[in-house]
Amino acid sequence: MPTIDRIDAFADELTAIRRDLHMHPEIGFEEVRTSNIVAEKLDAWGIEVFRGLGGTGVVGVLKGKGDGKRRIGLRADMDALPMEEHTNLAWRSTIPGRFHGCGHDGHTTMLLGTARYLAETRNFDGTVHFIFQPAEEGLGGARAMLRDGLFQKFPCDELYGLHNAPDLAHGEIAILPGPAMAGADFFDIVISGYGAHGAMPERSKDPVVIAMTLGQALQTIVSRNVDPLHSAVLSITQFHSGSAYNVIPGEARLAGTVRCFSDDIRKLVRERMRALAAGIAAAFDVEISVDIRDIFSVLVNQQEQSDVVAEVARGVVGDANVKLREQPKMGSEDFADMLQAIPGAYFWVGHDGDVPVHNPGYVLDDKILPIGASMFARIVETRLPVAANV
C-alpha cells in the first residue's frame, strides 16, 4: 500500500496549487486568498464548506459510504511567515516580507489532495472534517477556531496533523508518542529608567545597564532552578533601546521565548522571571514590567493514534522509512491546543533539502505532496473501514 495511484495521477496539479500558494503568501489571519482557493476547490469536489472559524479558517465536511457515526478530523495550517525569501525559484514569493518559510503551503496542498481523493472514492464509513487553520505561527489560530466552537460544530473522535521535515530523509515518516513538542511562552520586559547625556551617566538610571544585568540573571533560571534531567529553554531574542551615540535612553525592552515540556516548569520559570525583575528593579530604583504570554501548549500525541500513524506509514513509505522519535522537539506547534480537546497524533514527513524551516533559503520538496496526502487518506480508510455489505 504505497502512495495512492489516484493521488499520484494528479500530483502535477497538486504541485501547481502549492506553487501558486507559495507565490502569494499570506500571514496569520490574513489568509483571504488562500482560504478562497481552499473553499472553491472543496466545493468543486462536492465537499460541504464552512467558512469563518477563527477568522479565515475553512472546514470541509465529507460523508462516506454507509451510516458510520465516527468522525475524523484532518488539519493543515495555511499561514506564511513575515520574512523575506532568498531563493531564486521561479515560483518564489511575489509579496515583499512574506514567505512560506515553514511549508504551510505544502500542508494545505496535501490536505486538498486528500480531500479530492476521498471525495472521488468515498471509500470510508463515517465523516471526515478537513480543517484548514489560519495563524499557526504564534498568533493563536488554533485557539481562535476553538473559541468559535470548532469541535462543537464539527465533532471529532480523533484528530491528525502533519508537518514537513527537511531534517528527515525524503519519504521518511516520524512519530513520537507522548509529549512531542514543547509548550511556549513569549515575553516582553520593559525597563523604565531615567535618561541623561551620555557623558553624564551619574545623572541617569541607565536602562541599558539594567537590561544587561537582568538578561544575564534570566539565563540562570534554567541552569540553577530547573532539574537538569528535565528540559527548558529561555531565549532573549530582542533588545531594543536608544537612538543616539551620546544619549543614555530612558527605556529598554527585552523580549523572547520560553520553551519546556511541563506546565510545572513553565510556572516555575514565569515565577523566577518576575521575581528577578522585581529584585533588580528594587536594586536599581526603577520600574520593570513583565508580560509573559502562554502561546503554545505542550503537544502530546496519544499512543493509540500514534500507533495508527506508524501502521499506515509502513504501508505508504515502507517499514524502513518509519522513524519512532526518541527525543521531543523544542519547537512548538499550536495543533497542541486541538489535541488537548481531541485525542490524536501529529507526525513529520521528511523531504530532500538541508535548509531548515524559518530560514530565508528554505525550499519545500514538492515530491512529498502525494506522500502527505496518501498518509491522511490511508488514516481515514484505516480508521473508518467500509463494511463488506455496504
TrEMBL record:
Residues 183-277 form the Peptidase M20 dimerisation domain. InterPro entries: Amidohydrolase, Bact_exopeptidase_dim_dom, Peptidase_M20, Peptidase_M20_dimer. Keywords: Hydrolase. It comes from the Bacteria. NCBIfam families: amidohydrolases. PANTHER family: METALLOPEPTIDASE, PUTATIVE (AFU_ORTHOLOGUE AFUA_6G09600)-RELATED, PEPTIDASE M20 FAMILY MEMBER. This is M20 aminoacylase family protein. It comes from Rhodopseudomonas telluris.
